[in-house]
Structures are given as C-alpha cells and as structure tokens.
Write a structure and sequence with these properties.
The chain has 110 residues and is mainly α. The chain is built from four helices and no strands. Helix 1 packs antiparallel against helix 2. The two termini are 36 Å apart.
Length: 110
C-alpha cells in the first residue's frame, strides 16, 4: 500500500471520528434548543465547518473504496468496461468540476 493510500485511509478514519463529534454536537444543540430554549450560534457554525471537513475528506475515501453513491441496481449488471466508462464520465462531469469550483472559491477569498 502506497503513501497516498495510507493517507487516504487515515483521512477516512479521521472523517469517521469527525462524524461522531458532529453527531454529539447536533444532539446537544437540538436538546438545548428544544428542551431548554437556549442554543449557541458558535456551535451551529462549528457543525457546518465539521460537515465541510466530512464532505471534503470523505470524497477521497469513498472514491478510493469505490463506495460513492450511485444506482447499484443497474450498475451491478454492467460489464467492467461499462462500469469503467461510467466512473470516468461521472468523475469528469461531477467530481472534477466540483473540485475546481472549490479551488476557485478559495482563491477568490485570498
């Protein structure tokens, strides 16, 4: 296993840990808001930032593990060549443009 695979695996485990923290924060925030009529805007902002980390790091892990969302009912019956073509097209038209959009937006803030 290469350094990139090890790094992506580490990011996957880190993302799972962040998901657990996010769940605890959401439960605390919802409980505080609905049972005690109080809340924290800072915690809500932290939830959004953790969600961003989950999405950005989770993309790499799910693509590596071939576990991204698709309609497996149809995909399972396709040949390996068709699956490869679908993966290529979906990466070119969905993953790459999304990645470039993030890079573009980050560079606008500088």
């Amino acid at each position: 296993m290469g350094i990139i695979d090890k790094t992506i695996n580490y990011l996957g485990y880190f993302t799972a840990f962040i998901v657990a923290i996010l769940i605890l924060l959401v439960v605390y925030d919802a409980t505080a808001r609905y049972l005690f009529s109080t809340g924290s805007i800072a915690l809500q902002e932290l939830e959004w930032h953790l969600f961003d980390v989950i999405i950005l790091f989770g993309i790499a892990y799910t693509l590596k593990e071939n576990a991204h969302v698709r309609v497996d009912i149809f995909y399972a019956s396709y040949s390996e060549k068709t699956k490869a073509l679908i993966n290529l097209i979906s990466s070119l038209f969905f993953v790459l443009p999304f990645s470039f959009l993030i890079i573009y937006k980050v560079n606008l803030r500088k």
